[in-house]
Amino acid sequence: MPVATRGTGGRTWRGAAGGVAGWTIMASMTLGATGGYADWWLRVVVIPQLKMREASCLVLGSLLQTWPTKDESPVLSQAQIDIYVFPSSAACLAQYRNTSDHCEQFHGKAYMTFEGNPSFASKHKFLQQYAHPGSFFGCFYSEDRERVIFERSFSWVQMMLLALGLTVGMLCLIMAVRQLVVLSKVLTENR
Hints:
membrane, 191 residues
């Protein structure tokens, strides 16, 4: 039968080994999930927004589309603004030296956010802020010209989730190391 030793909180080598294993599994699961989430968030949200090109947009009109739902839940809606995009000619021509067709103006639709599903009230606020026909606003457009947004935005909630995941994962790792120290004490004193 294993003997508990002083300085180890009365733990046996089996208990200390179980603590090391448990905390290591928790750390690897938490850090693995956080790393996967960070990879998705960077690939889907952050990098595409950072790759968007700057332009000026002329507002032509706006639309708040709504669709009824089958049950009595809130109505689905989409706020969009009809725009004409004027790419920044100097920056565009510097990037596409011999092919100025990438720098031509184009007609498109601007949406409220790059990702997520904002509330109905925030869509109204978006339209109040930008839906002024004849007005110019700074905007950003994707290389394929499918997405146009007025502001780059990164959700602080997603950033906080990443920070929380890293913190919990690191605390689990610290606990695993502490349990490893206890295990080494138990094993050296039980020789």
